[in-house]
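Course assignment 3, question 2. Fill in each field.
Student: A.L.
Task: Predict the tertiary structure for the chain below.
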Amino acid sequence: MCSVGIFLGETTPRYSFPDDHPLRSSRVEIFLNKFREELGNKESIKVMEPIIASEDLLLLFHTKEYVDFVKRASEYGFGYLDYGDTPAFKGVFEASSYVVGSTLLGLDIILKKEIDHIFNPIGGMHHARRDRAAGFCVFNDASIAIIHAKKNHGLKRILYVDIDAHHGDGVCYEFYDDPMVFTADIHEDGRYLYPGTGFSHETGSGEAEGTKLNISLKPGAGDEEFKEAFDEIEEFAHRIKPELIIFQCGADGLRNDPLTHLVYTEEAHRYATKKLHKISHELCDGRILALGGGGYNPDNVAKAWLEVIKGLIDYHPMVTNL
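Answer field:
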């Protein structure tokens, strides 16, 4: 059995957009209630307070001009940070900085071996680019974590796995020519869903050719199609032998999500987590950092994320078939 740290606290629901926006605090609150009911008494789980990131950490990935723009918008509290998906609100800068700070602290904890695995439910903001917000994502904590792992911990082979229904364009393309960053992304076909990217021929450029794996699924794809796709990721991981796995486990691929057209059950998250957990212990000393990502049906989010936590707790090295 492994120890798992999870960032949950008073600041967790602050990364929530106003009114009837799809990404609002109810998704986290329902998850938190389910977590307390099912796993709240587990000794192997440590609940930790989120921590805010310094501006220097934001600047590992984002431009100074963009960070300043978010700070100003956060003070005014109105308008949009992009072209209409990501509204500003008072305190959005601080709320977004808590996402980044918690993800980076989680990474440091894993690499120091203080806790086996970490889950940041409000992490995984994979659409934000260096100079702009996109798709409900203000600061890209996953990309910042990748740079932090390289620059401050000296890691040279990082695997980013993304099962959110939306392609993680802000990670894939920002490291498209980086041979040290391997991305493996299962998502709904970009011809049917935002951001319209992530096609199989997109495998990296220059020295990074072959380091990016994009697997798109047609609308209506379910658990069986997902498992077949994830088996490709398992082969990819064993081939590249990463030193760290960052797992974006968005829950918007489950049936009845209001924004997507996939029909997984929580079995997809159970399968993916168990596979990656086993791989992490075989290849990179158990180093796996999980980030919540999307998901806009709160009940689905709770079901999927609980499976992620359960999968990170349970590890049976003698089991060969999952």
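Instructor remarks: The radius of gyration is 18 Å. Strands lie at 4-7, 45-48, 117-120, 158-162, 181-188, 212-217, 244-248, 288-291.
Grade: pending
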